[in-house]
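quick one before i forget lol
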Amino acid sequence: MSRQRKRIRGALAPVLTPFDQDREPDFPALLAHCHWLLDNGAGLAIFGTNSEAASLSTEERIALTDGLLESGIPAERLMPGTGACSVKDAIRLTKHAVQNGASGVLIEF
């Protein structure tokens, strides 16, 4: 049975991924930024609009997405960037987004 997805309406904010002093993704800062954007009416375009995809591994993007979802960010407000240099990585990221209820993906090769 196919599940109907709710489409994102309105503005999609290109979400910057913050990094800490050790050049690791700063999840608490990312989460706070995402909440601020949602509170101000924006949908969340994560990992794809500001070149983060080239700076993060597939595992990091999946872990950060899982962290956002586990912290209460609604999947239907996410449109993750799933593009990758590897077609296999792009497919894996896209499947992860779809299986977790994202409204769509931003894909570039």
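fyi The helical segments are 27-39, 52-55, 58-70, 87-99.
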